[in-house]
Write a structure and sequence with these properties.
Layout (H helix, E strand, L loop, with lengths): L1 H30 L9 H22 L4 E5 L5 E4 L6 H10 L7 E4 L2 H7 L4 E11 H8 L12 E8 L5 E6 L4 E6 L5 H11 L6 E4 H5 L6 E5 L5 E7 L9 H19 L7 E4 L5 E5 L4 E5 L5 E5 L3 H4 L5 H14 L7 E11 L7 E11 L2 E5 L8 E6 L2 E7 L2 E9 L10 H7 L1 H8 L5 H11 E10 L7 E10 L2 E6 L5 E5 L4
Parallel strand pairs: 17-21
Antiparallel strand pairs: 1-2, 1-4, 3-7, 4-5, 5-6, 6-7, 8-9, 10-20, 10-22, 11-12, 12-13, 13-14, 14-19, 15-16, 16-17, 16-18, 18-19, 21-22, 22-23, 23-24
Helix pairs in contact: 2-10, 12-13
Length: 496
């Protein structure tokens, strides 16, 4: 009898536990937040919108003007080599309006373009030929608008004096345009007033206005800044592999960087550590290879996939693919990276695999950086075919915390005319000029194509320093001059 009671008790207890578990499970499903379970269709839509917004913002952070020319009217200008005033973000909504119906596009002459460059306006210069589809993608264009009427652009000028009007130049194709649409210029006028109210902006004027020489290129007359000598270091410290105390932590850091290139296949990647400290990662039989060299440079190569390479011949899609690839593999957050140039590759007769090489650079202290080892290229080089990135090279420096001033006896850079005077004989020989000093100076200023203040450094140097330099383009050549001493530190027969 006692045994039967025990069995009955067990049966009742088991039944109670089953009922209790069902009740608790039901309660859990009722109280569990939706975000922790399967997202609703509405949530999926919201997330898609967020992703789309993030993509637009990320692309616009990298594809942005290389310089901003602020014209206060007449002879008074300033030039910014980074977007320190947030101009690009303010202008994007304005430009979006030109990708809607009802936009009038008119051709203007080069002479007219030069005239309007001196009126009260903001001009944004990209330095390369940007396909109009890229601009539409960046601003989030809702319709064709100016697409089909304009193929590409290299500069955008927004004056405050003409209602609904902006100007676009496509100098690589010899075209200049006047666009008439709907535009609110209050923000543009406010930005010009805001920059002009600051006492410490750099003052620029054209060669024509200063030297009465037939050239509209802007040159600096008065620089307000005291330039800094910048201490820099490689983003990846491979040197840590040479010491037992830091070997494991350094290798783990490099592994994290490498995993971004291989994704879920990283567990199947073969790793080779060479005697010089370089690390090679290989997937498959060389289908994907990443090398992190002893100097900290990275090089990634991926075998061409014909399906991906010919999936899209649209340049806009290819460039978006390359830019997203760079953004997703950024090592140091907050680096001021920007697109410097787009170059076509491949696409020979009978070859459908037309691709593009994209050159990216970075700014430090608001100025572009050029590295001695490869000044004609850039910090990041990417090759893309269709929707596949096949090559990625990166040599990116980041600023160290310690910053030292240039010696106090010369805190400001030499003026352009001083630099030209110091190097007149060398430039005279290079350019095949003749005549006395005044004639040679005038001829050089006539041929001068651009002037830019930037940083220049030797990546292989133990000092790890970037010095301020003047980069001057004359016809098809480029000079780098030490901004403090005036001497030539590099020159080449190419415009970069």
């Amino acid at each position: 009898m006692t045994k039967m009671r025990k069995e009955s008790f067990k049966t009742i207890l088991l039944a109670v536990l089953v009922v209790l578990s069902i009740a608790l499970t039901q309660q859990l499903w009722i109280t569990m937040p939706t975000a922790s379970g399967i997202p609703s269709s509405k949530e999926k839509t919201l997330q898609a919108d967020r992703n789309k917004l993030n993509e637009v913002n990320s692309i616009s952070d990298v594809i942005n003007p290389q310089s901003f020319v602020i014209s206060f009217g007449g002879k008074d200008h300033t030039v910014l080599f980074s977007d320190s005033h947030g101009i690009w973000k303010e202008v994007l909504p304005i430009l979006r309006g030109y990708f809607e119906d009802g936009i009038t596009v008119e051709d203007i002459t080069p002479a007219r373009w030069e005239e309007i460059s001196d009126i009260r306006a903001i001009k944004m210069e990209f330095g390369y030929s940007m396909p109009i589809g890229i601009l539409s993608s960046i601003v989030g264009g809702k319709g064709p608008g100016i697409q089909g009427k304009i193929i590409a652009l290299d500069s955008i000028l927004i004056p405050v004096s003409e209602d609904g009007v902006i100007y676009i130049s496509d100098k690589f194709n010899g075209r200049f345009f006047r666009l008439l649409g709907k535009i609110n210029k209050d923000k543009v006028a406010f930005l010009i007033d805001q920059i002009g109210s600051q006492y410490n902006y750099d003052y620029y004027s054209s060669i024509r206005q200063v030297y009465a020489i037939d050239n509209n290129v802007l040159v600096p007359l008065d620089l307000s800044r005291e330039l800094l000598k910048i201490k820099v270091e490689n983003e990846i410290n491979v040197e840590g592999l040479k010491q037992a105390s830091t070997y494991a932590s350094t290798l783990k850091q490099i592994d994290i960087f490498a995993s971004a290139f291989f994704g879920e296949n990283f567990d199947f990647v073969k790793k080779i550590i060479q005697t010089d400290g370089s690390v090679i990662y290989m997937y498959g039989y060389g289908q994907k290879v990443l090398k992190v060299s002893a100097s900290g440079a990275m090089e990634y190569v991926e075998g061409l996939d014909n399906n991906k390479a010919t999936a899209s011949t649209d340049i806009t899609e290819s460039i978006k693919t390359a830019v997203q690839f760079v953004i997703s593999r950024e090592i140091t957050p907050g680096q001021d990276i920007y697109l410097r140039d787009i170059r076509p590759i491949g696409g020979n007769e009978g070859d459908k695999r037309k691709g593009y090489q994209l050159l990216f650079a970075n700014r430090i202290n608001g100025l572009p950086v050029y590295v001695k080892e490869n000044p004609s290229q850039a910090s990041i080089e990417v090759q893309v075919f269709g929707k596949q990135v096949t090559s990625y090279k990166k040599l990116l420096l980041r600023e160290k915390i310690d910053v030292s001033f240039i010696p106090p006896q010369r805190p400001e850079p030499l003026a352009i005319y001083e630099v030209i005077d110091i190097n007149a004989e060398i430039m005279k020989r290079d350019l095949g000029l003749t005549g006395d000093e005044d004639k040679v100076f005038n001829d050089i200023m006539t041929k001068l194509a651009s002037v830019q203040l930037c940083y220049y450094g030797d990546n292989a140097s133990d000092k790890g320093e970037l010095i301020p330099v003047w980069k001057i383009q004359i016809e098809d050549g480029t000079y780098f001059f030490d901004a403090m001493k005036g001497n030539i530190i590099n020159r080449m027969k190419a415009k970069i």
